[in-house]
Amino acid sequence: MMTNYEKIHTARRDLEKLRAELIASIGTQKDRDPDLLILHERVSKAINALSA
Questions:
Q1: Higher pLDDT among residues 32 and 4, named by residue
Q2: C-alpha dihedral, 14 to 16 to 19 to 24, nearest 10°
Q3: pLDDT per residue over 8-28, tens digit each?
Q4: Which of 4, 8, 41, 48 is least buried, going by the fewest C-beta atoms within 10 A?
């Protein structure tokens, strides 16, 4: 059974992977999709919240 700390650590790691994928997607698009930008912002906020 995972502790709460381990669950948060896993969630943060998964969000960091997602953020990296979003950055890669945003960087390869000529016309940036506004939904990707919003999602990137929200994922970044979630990572910050888990880090505090």
A1: 4
A2: -100
A3: 999 999 999 999 999 999 888
A4: 4
33 pLDDT band, cuts 50/70/90, is confident
What is the DSSP code (8-state) at residue 6?
H
Tell me the C-alpha to C-alpha distance, in Å, between residue 42 and each of 4, 25, 38, 47. 22, 16, 6, 9
Distance from C-alpha of 43 to C-alpha of 52, rounded to nearest angstrom = 14
The first and second tokens of residue 36, run together, are 């990707």
Q: What is the mean pLDDT of the chain?
A: 92
Q: How far is CA 6 from CA 22, 37, 46, 47, 52, in A?
A: 24, 29, 16, 15, 15
